[in-house]
Specification:
2 domains; Rossmann fold; globular; about 180 residues; alpha/beta
């Protein structure tokens, strides 16, 4: 039996913290599927297709550089994470924990997923460099800062370039964040 995990998230945008969880999950499981979904509680900066493309850029690189570790696939999904995980035959969900507040909400979700769908959740603790990095924080910095190179410790350079393009185009999500901070 293969141990196969789904790592769900919105990845809006993908960060080094996300990539760290994926890389570590490759050591724990035989196969990892990154499931790019939509968080209904947040306005999305990038489309699902753009987010899938960004995540694939890095996971394809991971697969090439370390073919001895579990392969990673990236798929878009809609609806409930547990339904997607069951549809692809996952045995577990993979989740990253950055801090105590993450742990509290993640445990609640893990218990629900186990009770309702029979899915276990494997947690990996984020590296200390990523303990306070979030996609929301990245978007706030992108909206408020004139120097997006400040994000270089949080996101890959290709993501910074995409954020620059969005900022120059006065993307409504970034403009809304900027206006809310003024």
């Amino acid at each position: 039996m293969q141990h196969f995990a789904v790592y769900p998230g919105s990845f809006d945008p993908v960060s080094f913290g996300h990539l760290d969880v994926i890389a570590r999950g490759r050591r724990l499981f035989d196969r990892v599927v990154v499931a790019v979904g939509r968080n209904p509680g947040k306005e999305q900066l990038f489309s699902v297709d753009e987010r899938v493309e960004m995540v694939r850029l890095y996971t394809d690189r991971m697969n090439r550089e370390r073919p001895d570790l579990a392969p990673v696939e990236v798929h878009a999904f809609g609806g409930l994470t547990m339904d997607f995980a069951r549809s692809v035959g996952a045995t577990a969900l993979l989740r990253g924990i950055r801090n105590l507040s993450d742990l509290q909400s993640e445990i609640q979700q893990a218990l629900t997923n186990r009770q309702v769908a029979g899915l276990e959740t494997a947690f990996v603790v984020a590296g200390q460099d990523f303990a306070y990095t979030s996609s929301s924080l990245i978007k706030q910095i992108a909206a408020m800062s004139d120097d997006l190179s400040k994000l270089s410790t949080m996101v890959p350079v290709e993501v910074i370039e995409r954020l620059r393009v969005r900022k120059a185009a006065k993307d409504p999500v970034l403009e809304q964040l900027r206006a809310a901070q003024e």
